[in-house]
From TrEMBL:
Organism for this UniProt entry: Pelagomonas calceolata
InterPro entries assigned to the protein according to its UniProt record, in alphabetical order: Helicase_ATP-bd, P-loop_NTPase
Gene3D superfamilies noted in UniProt: P-loop containing nucleotide triphosphate hydrolases
Name this protein carries in UniProt: Helicase ATP-binding domain-containing protein
Pfam family, any one: AAA_30
Domain Helicase ATP-binding: 428-608
Length: 779
């Protein structure tokens, strides 16, 4: 389809725009944008030039999907026309109890989660990626109501919004046809066709569906779009944000638009109050909770959505995360330090007078026209002179005149839920650092590439982004992933599923795996449900010969010169595919003259074939202590890697448990007892985290040692299901709204160092590793 150039073009557009802004907007001595001193006329010229380039890219993006696809184009045109005819309500409105932005935010928090759950199932079933957008802020609701709907807030029906992204017209048509049928829990109120009937002057195209959550009166928006067009829109929206405030916006508004934090809305926090009280009642008003979150969250984390959950007892908070460093800071604050809970409780009011003070000084409430004071009954009196309404004890979306009581309770974070969200976000996170982006560009432009990085350097992360690009750019592409052990191959397949944001079935049907013994050949991956969990499984038989768009060989430094793998890759015609080898020269067990020997030792390449070697030297995902510890284990056969840590997190210290055994003691029983005590200490260190499901790995030197440990450890830890690394790697993460089966035990990985190669866990308990490991093992 030739989509690859489009992805590169969008990145180049964004970089060019940032450079243009840097040229016309000076910076202060502290490095921030000095918007007050800039010439807005020059900023206007930058915006106009960017819009012209965007229009060209929209046209090219649409043509890349429609060329030689006449039947699919006609099908989409007919589907759009039919949906517009079926769902043509001229002015859909939310059924608000009071026509205020506050009431609309209240309604969104109550029904938004149900809207997204139903829409996500429809999009992913059709083979699309579901992208959850942030809740529209009250300031934007107010602006849109006044500017577009003569102050009628109820007509703002995109407070909750999402996008269904598709990589082909065929998949988009499947989704469009699904909305013509009966949809459980939803009613389509209106369809707007901007693919054909109302294409934008800018060249942008999409289809918008305005959908009501059944029997609630709440309406949200779903956009259906093609990936290339949406990628360009992501760039165009930054230009739009600048253009929107350029003429009349304040200096601060313009600075924020140019700097702009990109929100990738993710379910991150589940908050609860003492005594089973509603978290939102405890806070007094949703704005108070949002302001408290703003104060407590580390830099780089921004509130995107707040939803009622668990019968309105809990609040589910979705955040926009600026980068992986911000996520690491939040992890430390929630798990290792407990500082986030301390900060949010300090920021929340503990009596009515504190609530009145916070509401009275809140910029968000002032913007909406609210004032706050104490009533004679000792409650906080919230008033809005712009509207008329009766008294009410409603708290979350308090109407224009409401008396609110607030209880003095402590707010807690569900740490088990946080860890599930954290693990999923780390696999889903696609924002690259500048260093990673440069290296991804290098390997993407190469027929054959070797990507080198030390332990924790992110080579698998960058490779996953490359595979996702290949699968998104060509709907007919198939990728082969090669690794020594099953656990790593399954983990990468799971990572691809999460990173793609599509249904697991649609992702793994286009990914084959090749693991030792390599002579067994490539196998398919499929999804099975067992024991209340969904798992990835390898097929039993060799797949038929196919041409792979990309072959990725992970931990390739362990496979240099492997004759069995070389023979199998030759049979697969690997030299005709794009090749990406991932390795760590510092762990190589055989001396190499140059890194390209990794590629040439496994695939017979023409002598004139260039092998691009890219090196990641910036460790992003690991803490500083892990990086320092890993450096001590670099082998002399490779070069010592020079690395820097992108994360500011030092991480918790290594804890050593030294003990002695008496003659005649059973080593397995002794080690099992020490592991149990270590787990107890871990729970204390992680601020009483009870749910350790698949968060901890017990790692031993070899299979024989693990077999001796497994039986006594299983007796001592009856609440856990002891599994090997491959079994744990196969388990797919649960969705935001899925609960683990009531009778399901927590998974605890117990395996050897070899089988854990290339994997990670929140906590590793190293057992019996106080012995010399043969350097020839390549560990």
């Amino acid at each position: 389809m030739g989509a690859g150039a489009s992805f590169i073009d969008v990145e180049e557009l964004t970089e060019a725009l940032e450079q243009d802004f840097a040229r016309v907007v000076p910076r202060t001595p502290r490095g921030s944008l000095d918007v007050a001193s800039c010439d807005r006329g020059k900023v206007r010229k930058v915006v106009d030039g960017a819009n012209e380039r965007i229009k060209e890219r929209y046209v090219a993006g649409w043509q890349s999907y429609t060329a030689r696809k006449g039947a699919a184009v006609d099908e989409l045109r007919d589907a759009c026309a039919a949906l517009v005819e079926d769902f043509h309500e001229a002015e859909p409105r939310c059924a608000l109890p009071a026509n205020t932005p506050s009431a609309l935010v209240d309604m969104a928090s109550r029904h938004g989660a149900a809207l997204h759950a139903a829409l996500e199932g429809l999009v992913t079933k059709a083979g699309g990626e579901y992208v959850h957008g942030p809740t529209k802020k009250v300031e934007r609701i107010k602006d849109k109501a006044e500017n577009d709907y003569e102050g009628d807030v109820a007509r703002v029906v995109d407070v909750e919004r999402a996008t269904g992204l598709f990589d082909s017209l065929e998949a988009l048509n499947t989704a469009a046809s699904a909305f013509r049928g009966t949809i459980d829990g939803l009613t389509v109120r209106r369809c707007k066709d901007a693919f054909f009937a109302h294409k934008h002057d800018s060249g942008y195209r999409d289809m918008k569906l305005f959908v009501e959550v059944a029997d609630t009166g709440f309406i949200g928006e779903l956009q259906l779009n093609l990936r290339q067009i949406q990628n360009i829109k992501g760039h165009a929206h930054k230009v739009y944000d600048v253009e929107r405030v350029l003429e009349k916006g304040t200096d601060e508004a313009l600075r924020r638009a140019i700097d702009g934090l990109d929100l990738e809305s993710e379910q991150v926090l589940c908050l609860a109050a003492d005594g089973g009280q509603s978290i939102l009642d405890a806070c007094g008003h949703v704005v108070v909770l949002e302001d408290a979150l703003d104060e407590a969250l580390p830099a780089g984390c921004e509130v995107a959505n707040v939803y009622n959950a668990g019968g309105a007892v809990h609040a589910h908070v979705r955040l926009g995360i600026a980068d992986v460093c911000a996520l690491a800071r939040l992890r430390d604050a929630v798990l290792f330090e407990g500082s986030f809970e301390t900060a949010i409780n300090a920021a929340l009011p503990h009596d009515a007078s504190q609530l009145a003070e916070k509401l009275a000084t809140s910029d968000k409430m002032k913007e909406l026209g609210f004032s706050a004071s104490m009533s004679q009954s000792g409650r906080c009196l919230l008033k809005n002179e712009r509207f008329l309404a009766g008294d009410s004890d409603s708290s979350l979306g308090a109407p224009p005149d409401a008396k609110i009581r607030v209880e003095s309770v402590d707010v807690h974070v569900d740490r088990g839920a946080f860890m599930e969200c954290y693990a999923r976000i780390m696999m889903r996170f696609a924002k690259l650092t500048m260093h990673q982006r440069e290296k991804l560009t290098e390997v993407r432009g190469a027929k054959v590439a070797v990507l080198l990085a030390p332990a924790g350097g992110g080579k698998t992360f960058v490779a996953v982004q490359r595979v996702v690009q290949v699968l998104n750019e060509d709907p007919d592409a198939t990728v082969l992933f090669v690794a020594r052990n099953e656990a790593l191959a399954l983990f990468v397949c799971k990572w691809l599923v999460v990173a793609s944001r599509k249904s697991a079935e649609h992702v793994v049907e286009r990914v084959h795996v090749l693991v030792a013994p390599f002579s067994s050949g490539p196998r398919r991956v499929h999804v099975e449900a067992a024991g209340g969990r969904r798992r990835l499984m390898f097929g039993n038989s060799r797949v038929e010969a196919t041409t792979y768009a990309l072959i990725v060989v992970d931990e390739a430094h362990h496979l240099v010169g492997d004759s069995s793998l070389r023979s199998e890759l030759a049979e697969l015609g690997a030299a005709e595919s794009s090749l990406l080898f991932l390795g760590d020269a510092s762990q190589a067990t055989a001396a190499m003259q140059s890194p390209d020997e990794i590629a040439r030792s496994l695939v017979e390449l023409p002598q004139e074939q260039d092998v691009v070697v890219a090196t990641l030297s910036e460790v992003v995902r690991s803490t500083k202590r892990i990086v320092a510890g890993a450096a001590a284990f670099q082998l002399e056969a490779g070069r010592k890697a020079e690395t820097s840590t992108h994360s500011a997190s030092a991480g918790p210290p290594l804890v050593a448990r030294i003990f002695t055994t008496s003659k005649g003691d059973d080593a397995g029983e002794t080690y099992a007892r020490e592991v149990v005590e270590a787990l107890t200490a871990i729970r204390r260190q992680l601020v009483d985290l009870e749910d350790l499901d698949d968060r901890v790995a017990v790692v031993g030197p070899d299979e024989a040692f693990i077999e001796k440990l497994r039986e006594p450890l299983g007796r001592a830890l009856g609440g856990f299901e002891l599994v090997d690394a491959a079994t744990a790697s196969a388990v797919l993460p649960r969705g935001d709204t899925e609960a683990r089966a009531a009778d399901a035990k927590q998974l605890l990985v117990v395996d050897s160092v070899d089988n854990m190669d290339g994997l990670e866990r929140l906590v590793i308990i190293c057992v019996g590793l106080d012995q010399v490991i043969d350097r020839g093992a390549g560990v």
